[in-house]
Amino acid sequence: RKEVEQDPGPFNVPEGATVAFNCTYSNSASQSFFWYRQDCRKEPKLLMSVYSSGNEDGRFTAQLNRASQYISLLIRDSKLSDSATYLCVVDFTGGSYIPTFGRGTSLIVHP
Amino acid sequence: NAGVTQTPKFQVLKTGQSMTLQCAQDMNHNSMYWYRQDPGMGLRLIYYSASEGTTDKGEVPNGYNVSRLNKREFSLRLESAAPSQTSVYFCASKAGPQETQYFGPGTRLLVL
Known about the structure:
- The structure holds two protein chains of two kinds.
- Chain A is an all-beta fold.
- Chain A contains no helices and eleven strands.
- In chain A, strands 2, 4, 5, 9, 10 and 11 form a six-stranded mixed β-sheet that branches. A five-stranded antiparallel β-sheet of chain A has the order 1-3-8-7-6, with no helix packed on it.
- By secondary structure, chain B is an all-beta fold.
- Chain B has strands at about 5, 10-15, 20-25, 30-35, 45-50, 55, 65-70, 75-80, 85-95, 100-105, 105-110.
- In chain B, the strands form two sheets. In chain B, strands 2, 4, 5, 6, 9, 10 and 11 form a seven-stranded mixed β-sheet that branches.
- Chain B is globular, with a radius of gyration of 13 Å.
- The interface between A and B is medium-sized, with 22 and 23 residues.
């Protein structure tokens, strides 16, 4: 079983919609959590870190549920430019230098 | 700051040829990484260097070697390229455990 799992999608939504992605992780010792965005044929870029209390950045909200071992990303008022693949990343405890990436969730926002 | 830079951007090789992919970062990061990404697959770690002077195998190290030349530079070498190594290669760096990872723009490699 992969350590970090995501629904690959694609999620196909109209402009203005609200969409949410979940990501589950298997290692309960996980310490740090991130969402990255990857555009087609480009490098992954940090979208936002995920904090225990949850955090928001404009239209994007990230939440962490340690009891159920998942993180979520909510995108409100979707824009065409939000179309991308969203990667969930988990860093485990113990001074691990190797972040674990999910395979990504594809989002397509259409007019 | 340029961040993480990679050269070349594109490369075509014939089976059996060798080449070195270069990566450099100017953020004074301790850890550096090489990944490959194939269509429909996630990022797979080839090798990483937790700090200057150390290197370790990742998930898919066969057919590759690495050198952490100094704190800034981390190169990936293909000694005898195979078609299965056709992929997009990303270099990344981060300051330390649980810090944000930053990626280079990638090298697109085609092995014929």
